[in-house]
Amino acid sequence: MKAILWGLICGLIFGAGLDISHMTETQKVQGFLDIFGAWDPSLALVMAAALAVSFLGFAVARGRARPLFTRQNLWPIKAAIDTPIVAGSVLFGAGWGLIGFCPGPAIADLATGAAPVVFFVVAMTVGMVAQNLVQRRRLPPTPAGQEPALEATCG
């Protein structure tokens, strides 16, 4: 129950940060991505600040023997740049540039009830579920009663 409460608090802080920084506004995001047109570099500052805070948080977390709200750390297990990471990055970037939604801000934007946001989140969810099914088929069989070990993701 404690972990759920902290997850809720962190989610509220994250959502407020997205809204305050205007990352939930598709025009703002598309302006940031339009580097050869009417480029708006303000979101670069938001991302730099987020990276700085995350860097500090990870440094503190790595110094702890055990996480505060769960049994074990779930650090990423893969660092190589390979075909799936490049293909996924291209698809993510294309979707982000075409519609102006990033997954986190899109979920925060669900509060508006706007049809484009709802359609985007539904389509994103379908894409994630489909990819997960494909990935599970490619993994070797696991002993009965155990879940396959999928890589931790950020996002």
Provide key terms for this protein.
6 helices, mainly alpha, 155 residues
Number of strands: 0
The secondary structure category is mainly alpha
Low-confidence stretches: 150-155
Kindly state the percentage of residues in helix.
55-70%
Please report the distance between the alpha carbons of the first and last residues.
Answer: 23 Å
**Helix-strand string:** HHHHHH
The share of residues in extended strands comes to under 5%
Report mean pLDDT, rounded to a whole number.
83
Q: Measured on Cα atoms, how large is the radius of gyration?
A: 18 Å
Tally of discrete structural domains:
1
Q: Which sheet architecture does the biggest sheet show?
A: none
Number of helices: 6
* Overall 3D form: globular
Task: Describe the protein in words.
With 155 residues, this protein is mostly helical. It has one domain (2-138). It contains six helices and no strands. The protein has helices at 2-20, 26-33, 42-62, 83-99, 103-109, 115-138. α2 (26-33) crosses α4 and α5 packs across α6. The protein is globular and about 50 Å long. It starts with a helix and ends in a 17-residue tail after the last helix. The model is unreliable at 150-155 (pLDDT under 50).
